[in-house]
Amino acid sequence: MSYYHQINDFVYLPTAVVIMEMNRAYDYFSLHYLGEKEVDVILKDLDSVTNKKIIIDFAHTESILASRRMGGLEKVTKNNQLFLINLTERCAKVIEHDCGTFLTRKSSGDKFTFCTSKSDFFLKKTQNIEKLFSYVLSSLLVSYLSDDRISEKIWEKLPSSGVKVSPYINLKRLYENSKLFSYVCYQLCFLTTEFSESKRLDDINDFDELVCVSYAGAVLATEIGRLLNKKVLYLMNLGPMSTLKDRNIANKIHKNKKYLFVADMSCMGTEYKLAKAILHVNRASLIGGITVVRYQKIDEIKPILDVSDYKEQFNYRVEITEN
Whole-model pTM above 0.85? Predict the structure, then answer.
């Protein structure tokens, strides 16, 4: 299995996904450490990559427990530009010790970046690593999610809110690419920490269960529930164009419990608002939501990708229907 994603001449590899995938038999969300076996897998994964700009993202990795293993990255730099981003101070010390002869350290607040000399020139050209990473992430998702009909300017009616959109952002494509689907699920898991005081996946007690209202959202919620060991409440077909089919749904809502909303796409926030109302009527609460893509800015819903930040790539438009 390959752990990186490729878009144009960029290769993006998140260490968190490697750690989680390799420790599925354990309570791996408590494992925020990159060990020797994970480092060896990363080095092997990147061994055949040539003439690329490689970004290794250490977000959510607190420490590297792999004595001198990281020095193997020198081979990766022979034919590639290399960026190590989002390193904690503890991780940065290991990289500086193992890779100081061929990587340059950059400071960015409480996070650190390392790169090769050629990459350093590219960073100056693109202003900063955040802008570079933003471009790669948006390009990755846009390339998979933008519908082929974008050139035809076809308007698609959304059953959740009744509005028409163009182009149609095809989130179902996530399920056609298992690697991207896993990456998105893990990113959504980390978004749940936005609702936690501890900001750690192994200490999420600020909500009790997940809730979803669409079939696409149910696929995501089911996987995230498995990863976080949280139950899922399925309020299926909730929206102005359809109604709940489960007559016993009220009995499944646990009173005084806190729920977190999961969706693939949040356009106008209609599904979220309806779910919040139903939970409130049944003496439960909705503390917020997570989604892959968000159009209208709703502070309570945290997205991986906010369409408003990438208007040029998506050229996304919404039109209110007459009926």
Answer: no
